[in-house]
Amino acid sequence: MSAARRRQSFMLETDLRIKTGILRGHLDEKRDLPTRQHCIDLEKRCADLGQDSRHIEWPCRTLRHHCARLGVAEQLEEVFLQEKVNDLDKFESCVETLRGRCSRWGRRGRQTFALGCVAPNATCTYLTQNVGAKCAVLGGRIQTEGVINKAKEKNTKEATCRSWMPFCNKFMSSCGNLTAEENKYCKGLKEECKTVIRQLELEEEVIYELKGHLNTKEKCKEELNKYCTIWKNATNGLETLCINKNTKNEDEEVKKELCKKLVEEVKKRCPGLTKRLTEASKELEEKEKEYEDIKKKAVEAMGKANLILSKTKTSDSKAESQAAAPAAVPAVSNTGKNAVQFKLVRRNAAAKAHITEKELEAFDLVSQAFGLYVELKEECEDSLKKVG
């Protein structure tokens, strides 16, 4: 090898050693509890340098593992915030909630959040820090930008409430700092925005009623006219959407303005909604297979234990049982007032009183099947509501 080649080789080795040394230092500092930005930056550098250096192989593996767990924690954060889980900014509360969910998911064989369940303390360290930081920023901005004062002013109330209440709705159940004081932060804003919040709820109902007619303002207006006729004698607030607040008469301009808002709102939702519905469709297909599998096992277990299902209808907190039963399976909601409850009943009512292992297995499987059924039903209904 010529002197020039040896010199070039030495320079490359030195450059690689320096770069891997710097990367190793960054990995030692950040790999155990990385942020999303750390994962983006360091994983790229691991990919670039990992092929030429074994010194960073294991630190990079550790980083990838923790970044994968971070991804699961980010998903869990969204799930918990959507479900309005209380005290998500408190570590002990987060761990208790997560362990309860993980236990339930484990019984059902769910693997989606398995990585977050393996180390609940590490997962909740991220969750509480991240949610707490977001809530602190939200509370700070509400104060520094004088949001509550703007919500008190007639000219700025609606725009302010429409802009800020979605953020408060997302975080206030999970963060104590946003509801700690009556006239500050989200608690104070919610009080000032009562009328706008009711208006938004009504608009949400109309979006659902007019689904399929919200791609243009013209189609919206045509369909809205029909509903306004129906709502004339309504007393649930929907009648107010078609009338001028001053004259108390039906107003074409009011309806045009409403349709403009609704069409714009649906357009804003569409890109993200398409993605979420595609993901939801895949999840529902997987859950349907899981439900059918559990249902089959439950039927087999009932047969082995010589049990049958007995239907009980519950209405206004009163139940009329069709047959006595040793154990009740979770109720399935039928309407707002009525629920159908099922009980496992021995075919031979005169049989021995103590519960056998086969009966316990059957009860467990039937409970899982009904739990999955209710979950599937709720998710399907929620997805259908979002389809406009």
Topology:
Elements: H1 3-30, H2 36-49, H3 57-82, H4 91-107, H5 114-118, H6 120-144, H7 147-152, H8 157-171, H9 185-192, H10 194-209, H11 217-231, H12 252-304, E1 307-315, E2 318-321, E3 327-333, E4 338-346, H13 357-386
Antiparallel strand pairs: 1-2, 1-4, 3-4
Structural write-up:
- With 388 residues, this protein is of the alpha+beta class.
- The protein folds into 3 domains: 72-192, no CATH class; 197-276; 290-386, no CATH class.
- 66% of the residues lie in helices and 7% in strands.
- The protein has 13 helices and 4 strands.
- The protein has a 4-stranded antiparallel beta sheet with strand order 2-1-4-3.
- The chain starts with a helix and ends with a helix.
Low-confidence stretches: 316-337
Major sheet description: 4 strands, antiparallel
How do the SSEs run, as a string of H and E? HHHHHHHHHHHHEEEEH
Radius of gyration: 29 Å
- Say how many strands there are: 4
